[in-house]
Amino acid sequence: MLKMGSECLIVVFRFIVLGLFVALLGRSSIGRWLFLNFSSFSSLGWFSKNGPSEDEVASASFNMWFVGRGYSDSRMSANAGDKEVDAEIITRIMDPDAGYLTTPIILLQCALIVLGQRDSLPKGVLTPRIVFGSMDLQERLQQNVIF
Questions:
Q1: Which of 20, 41, 106, 124 makes the best surface tag, with the fewest CB within 10 Å?
Q2: Can you quote a single GO CC term (predicted)?
Q3: Cα–Cα distance list, 8 to 14, 23, 59 (Å)
Q4: Torsion of CA 79, 80, 83, 84, to 10 degrees
């Protein structure tokens, strides 16, 4: 479930209107053409083909909260049945702009971990838990100004 919020009612209104634009215009080829060719107008000024200026990137930030609920004993999750969830973890990520600054940092740290352990990884399609489960990804991200 995704929840978005803002302290400003006008921004919430823009979220709603932009969502309606995407839902209605994104269904047709003409609507998609409008988005691609007039992105600034059809996104109410939030997106453009030019991208943000350096000042806009420098002044941007984000703050995300992740809430996970489950079982304190991993063996319990397989046989949970009607048992109630007894564990919760809350994680907050806050950093500069997610698209231009944070994403490359995260991808680079993940790539360095994969390159460092490529000989010990099993062959085939791997889940993030298999690749990063026992690694120090969180510590690496904290050392590189994320969190």
A1: 124
A2: lipid droplet
A3: 10, 23, 18
A4: 150
Summarize pLDDT for 87-103 with one digit per residue, the tens: 888 888 777 666 777 78
Question: What tens digit of pLDDT does each residue of 21-79 get?
Answer: 888 888 889 888 887 888 777 777 777 777 777 887 777 777 778 888 877 776 555 56
User: What is the number of alpha carbons within 13 Å of residue 104 lying toward its C-beta?
Assistant: 4
Distances (CA, A) of 76 to 40, 68, 88, 127: 50, 16, 15, 22
User: How far apart, in whole angstroms, are the C-alpha atoms of residue 108 and residue 96?
Assistant: 16
Report the alpha-carbon distance of residue 15 to residue 4 in Å, rounded. Answer: 9
Kindly state the helix (H) or strand (E) to which residue 85 belongs, with its residue range: none
